[in-house]
Amino acid sequence: MAASVEHSRAEILGVHKRWWEANMGLRIPEMSACFPSGDNYLMFNLNGHPYFGIDEKVKLWEFYAEQIEIPELPDNRIMRLEIRGDMAWLACEGYFPIREIGAEGTAAELLEVGESVTHVPIRATEIYQRDDGAGNPVWKIWHFNCSPLPPEDEPRPAFGDTAKERGLGWNPWGEPERVVGT
Is the overall model pTM greater than 0.85, yes or no? Predict the structure, then answer.
């Protein structure tokens, strides 16, 4: 019997919450549990670079554990979650708290932060499959894409409204959902 959409939604939101909460403190075991095993995973990181498979993601986090700190939970609002059978996607935006603690910092020109905490405005898309990488029917994030939001007071081309006016997570479908930090 196929899982209900409501059950799948609860499981996906649980993975989403664990993933974003694992960022605080760069907790590798908690992070790893959110993604499929092997080389199946693909990430377009906020630093602008791609990472392939969970082993590369772990290595990135080991590097960053010496270079950056995520000292608090990200503020994250879900704009949309769509579930179709064994596939789903989630779009969100928020603020990602980060500060440099090592000589290399983020090691990326796209993500320049300093020694004090910077709340980087971001948006992200998460693609889920009900497959743990070994064929077991467990929801995991198979693709993650994160990018910076535009400046909050920059007018949106063709419309003129700003992110500040719209508010974090605004969308035309309803109120954004806050799962992380609640």
Answer: yes
